[in-house]
C-alpha cells in the first residue's frame, strides 16, 4: 500500500537553523531594489528549509519514491 505521493530527492542548499514565521514587509509602489531583494532573500531561505524538510521526511520514510 502506497503511503502518499511519489517524491524525488530535493536538491540544493539546505538550512536547518531555527527560523521564525516570515513577516512580509510593506512594499512601496513602485518597489525599491532593497524591498525586492529582501523578498528574494526570504524566498531563498524558505526554499532551503523546504529542501531540508523534504529530505528529512524522505529519510524517515514519511515520503516515498517508489
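Sequence proposed for the structure above (66 residues):
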Amino acid at each position: 500500500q502506497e503511503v502518499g505521493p511519489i517524491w524525488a530527492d530535493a536538491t540544493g542548499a539546505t538550512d536547518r537553523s531555527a527560523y521564525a514565521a516570515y513577516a512580509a514587509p510593506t512594499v512601496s509602489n513602485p518597489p525599491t531594489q532593497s524591498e525586492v531583494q529582501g523578498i528574494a532573500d526570504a524566498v531563498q531561505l524558505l526554499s532551503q528549509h523546504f529542501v531540508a524538510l523534504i529530505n528529512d521526511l524522505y529519510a524517515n520514510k514519511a515520503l516515498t519514491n517508489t
